[in-house]
Amino acid sequence: MSKTVAIVGATGAVGVEFIDCLEKRNFPVGKLKLLASKRSAGKTQKFKGQDIVIEELTANSFDGVDIALFSAGGSISKEYGPIAVKAGAVVVDNSSAFRMTDGVPLVIPEINANRVKDHKGIIANPNCSTIMALVPLWPIHKKNRIKRLIISTYQAASGAGAAAMEELRESTRAHLEGKNYQNTVLPHPYAFNLFSHNDKIDMESGYNGEEVKVMKETKKIFEDDKINIGVTCVRVPVLRAHCESIMLECEKPISEDEVRAILSDAPGVKLVDNREKNYFPMPIDASGQGDVLVGRIRKDFSDPSGHSVSIFVSGDQLLKGAALNAVQIAELL
């Protein structure tokens, strides 16, 4: 049965990927509404060979809409998400606005697709870094409960949107040409540099908002408040696709061979683990892929008990970390 689908934030980096995912996955779209700010109204975007006119987002935008895919920031989601629900739509929200709200399912289809049925009009898409980590960690967790995680992220410009991607391009060009460039999107020079993730720092704990999201969301999705998690999130000068270094400690001893066997047929995972050729997950390979690439699977020598293994992952933040995950949720609906 065809659906009327609305995309809120249609001109943004994730919004563009929403459109592409709907088309490539042959989602049963009867009518597509592209919604954005007033300045984008009247422009067009292609969908299945047709030009779809972008409309200004208003309180009346959701009449007749079945599913609304939101990726326009938390404030827009908080304002217009309930309006869309009241109009009869189911909202799949890519912002952090509702992720930790009681009663709002936080869904990664490979992990907790059953939670979709619990929605009361809004389903939250997890943070991109959370998704990249948990898709490969969940099948391990099911076999041998993970009790502790140490995660370091290497996050691409795509996570900060199209403007950040353009700032990386332009600042890199300026640097190579020996010209000055004043950054305006991110707080530090981006070309040939890396820095602590640009989300707000909590002055008491020292953790930034991105790190807190990963810790809290993992516990909610795994439905396990006892997992101990430490996270360090870093922005790196890569256009697209995040990477993460993950150390996992299980309740029972676990070997690298066991981890490799578990992940060899895990949904949403692709093993890239060639020691002989020193070939492991890279953003250049993850970009444009729906799977999370996993490699560098090895024993953690800091834990002599044999309960810990280290892995390295890479995944497309705009796809599995955002648009693809949301469209998979819509498919479940």
Task: Give a verbal description of the structure.
By secondary structure, the chain is of the alpha/beta class. The chain has helices at residues 13-24, 74-86, 109-112, 128-143, 162-176, 209-222, 256-264, 283-286, 319-332; strands spanning 3-8, 29-36, 44-47, 50-56, 67-70, 90-93, 122-124, 146-155, 195-196, 228-235, 242-250, 269-271, 292-299, 308-315. Strands 3-4-2-1-5-6-7 form a 7-stranded mixed sheet, sandwiched between helices. A 7-stranded mixed sheet has the order 9-10-8-11-14-13-12. Helix 8 links the parallel strand 12 and strand 13. Helix 1 crosses helix 9 (319-332) and helix 4 (128-143) runs parallel beside helix 6. The protein is globular, with a radius of gyration of 20 Å.
